[in-house]
Design a protein that fits this description.
Helix content is about 80%, strand content about 0%.
């Protein structure tokens, strides 16, 4: 009798264990089904996301083309711009077709012609990439102002129409801007040149791209340019008021007979 009871007890225990195992397997199967479904959803979502991104990119490309056509470009000029935009993707992998067309559109005015905008496109995209990497999103994001400022700087320097010189000195300026993280930026550099006047064009490239940026970052482009112009005026021997005349006479820098006017 005891042996029979023991066997019955073992059989009941085994049956209970099998029931628990079946419940565990059922739960695992349910989880597997959920995981499979989730994976399928994520996979489908990725495909849909990719389709959406492609559609958005296509829309941006069409917007960029329409923007160029609205400037009055001929079909041949548009084709030339598109070919340049494609070449620039190879030269600057961080760029894309729509963005390159937009930059051409935004810089035609600054550079004076479609040809010069196309010529300087790789440089402009590289410059924006460098500034963006340095955290200066303001300068990098405003391509129209970036192009305008660099074009005006090199125009004042007499290098705007020489692509090689423009890219060489412009590249050094952009690296200086990246180093100062926005404190020396395209607009401040342009203002420095405007206020420095004639002295600006005679600055050595190394001085312009190494010393000037630190001064401009400290006091601003206008003040730094005004100071350089005043210093150049003194060196050129132009005296503007009686107080300055008196000081120059005092130290023997000029003779009284050289003074013209009161």
């Amino acid at each position: 009798l005891q042996r029979q009871n023991r066997l019955l007890h073992q059989a009941a225990a085994a049956e209970e264990a099998m029931a628990r195992r079946e419940q565990i397997m059922e739960r695992h199967s349910a989880r597997h089904a959920l995981a499979t479904g989730a994976a399928a959803y994520v996979g489908g979502h990725s495909v849909l996301h990719g389709i959406a991104e492609t559609a958005i990119s296509g829309a941006h490309y069409q917007d960029a083309r329409v923007g160029l056509l609205n400037t009055g470009l001929s079909p041949e000029e548009l084709a030339s711009a598109e070919e340049a935009a494609r070449r620039t993707i190879v030269a600057v992998p961080t760029s894309n077709l729509a963005e390159n067309l937009k930059v051409i559109n935004e810089t035609i005015g600054a550079f004076g012609s479609l040809g010069h905008a196309i010529e300087h496109l790789p440089f402009m995209q590289k410059a924006a990439s460098v500034l963006r990497a340095a955290g200066d999103e303001t300068s990098a994001g405003d391509m129209k102002n970036l192009a305008f400022s660099l074009a005006k700087i090199e125009e004042m320097r007499g290098r705007a129409l020489n692509g090689a010189e423009f890219a060489a000195e412009g590249g050094d300026l952009v690296r200086a801007m990246a180093f100062f993280h926005g404190k020396f930026n395209p607009e401040e550099a342009r203002l420095f040149g405007v206020q420095a006047k004639d002295a600006f064009k005679f600055l050595d490239t190394k001085y312009l791209t190494t010393v000037v940026p630190s001064i401009v970052a400290e006091v601003g482009g206008e003040r730094a340019g005004t100071a350089l112009n005043a210093f150049n005026t003194v060196l050129m021997g132009r005296i503007r008021d009686k107080k300055q005349v008196a000081e120059w006479l005092k130290y023997g820098l000029i003779e009284r007979g050289q003074v013209v006017g009161g």
